[in-house]
TrEMBL record:
Residues 2-79 form the Threonine synthase N-terminal domain. Its EC number is 4.2.3.1. It holds the Pfam family Thr_synth_N. InterPro entries: Thr_synth_N (IPR029144), Thr_synth_N_sf (IPR037158), Thr_synthase-like (IPR004450), Threonine_Synthase (IPR051166), TrpB-like_PALP (IPR001926), TrpB-like_PALP_sf (IPR036052). CDD domains: Thr-synth_2 (cd01560). This is Threonine synthase. Residues 99-329 form the Tryptophan synthase beta chain-like PALP domain.
Amino acid sequence: MRYISTRGGMPPKKFSKILLAGLAPDGGLAMPETYPEISPAGLEELRGLSYQELAFEIISRFADDIPAPDLRSIIVRTYTTELFQSEEIAPLKTLEPGLHILGLSNGPTLAFKDIAMQLLGNLFEDVLTKTGEDLNILGATSGDTGPSAEYAMRGKRGIRVFMLSPQGKMSHFQTAQMFSLQDPNIFNIAIRGVFDDCQDIVKAVSNDYAFKQKYHIGTVNSINWARIAAQIVYYFKGYFAATRSNTEQVSFAVPSGNFGNICAGHVARMMGLPIRKLILATNENEVLDEFFQTGCYRPRATAETMHTSSPSMDISKASNFERFIFDLTGRDTAKVKELWRSVDKGGAFDLAGTLLWEKVKDFGFVSGTSNHAARIATIRKIQERYGVLVDPHTADGLKVGLEHREEGVPLICLETALPVKFSESIVEAIGHEPARPAGYENLENLPQRYVVMNADADAVKAFIVEQTSGIPE
């Protein structure tokens, strides 16, 4: 398996090379040259496997340059009952026949990002141990990627994490999860701005190829293909848990901001998983819904990005969307470059009325939006009807998923986080605080360690240089 750039400017590379690199040198995203296909007979062989066995079978198809015994050991070490509070790792909760929630938030930071990030941390450590290199990870978070990355990388040899977050825009719980970490290899940078400003800085630094090489810059955001590969696994797990036969189809409802989570579902579908619909749910920042409704992709300016009660989706530039457009164009790198030339300058593109727009329906996507009133009502309704408490993002997914639910087709909503991370909304919905897992009782009162900066890529570079003096070039 080799990887190319969505913009055509990178020679094919093996998995281990793109694992540490983040953005391709031409500013594009790494994609496998082809998707591995899984036949109906292959699906039958996967059904019934444990999560660890399933993860090996899926991920080994994308990471075939890592010796199989090494990869198997990494996966077994990552997906443990102790770390994810369940032998199933991603247990399926059935609300009623044909309606399910895939439990993805039982990891160390109580968010679905842990499933990919814990694997990424162990993959990084394995590759760096073999090469003797160091890595400075630069990431951006709207609330969940940051804690997941920091908890996965804390204390790991040869790794430093520089995590950018929008100052004052995350929940108190999410902020405390990150800022309370005292590990010397973790650096939190609160940016005066919104998530998109943080993401723009990560891309600007990654596009400075000389700086990236000199200071060994890598990324853990979902622009890193390994994140997508790890998330593909739980689509297969959810499908097998909700069906009895590989002749059945299911639909997945996915809360979406940066298009990474649902991109993994798109790849699973392309590999042969019988997915009928990928139901994309946005909050008030409805850039992706606007595209799937109209054909126009128009990222918003910073001032237009709304701060909502599902803050991890307060994103107006969906990085992974470029991966879908790459497939939509038939992997036409010249076309992708042309479209993103406008996007990168703050513009938009409109496919309405084109042959490409006609092809969108062939990929199974439908979409819808939610807002504060709808998500609070959904949290309350799911609690009253099924005795299950969900967080605001999962509520957005359920709200939109139920709007597109079809008779006879199981609907699986991907859980994104535990309710305790967003207690203000939970109190508004049901009148009392959500239960806190053991160990989190005093989180917000712990000492915090972070710096505040303007949205300035040069300032972030200078900070990285200051903190990494002594690392060999």
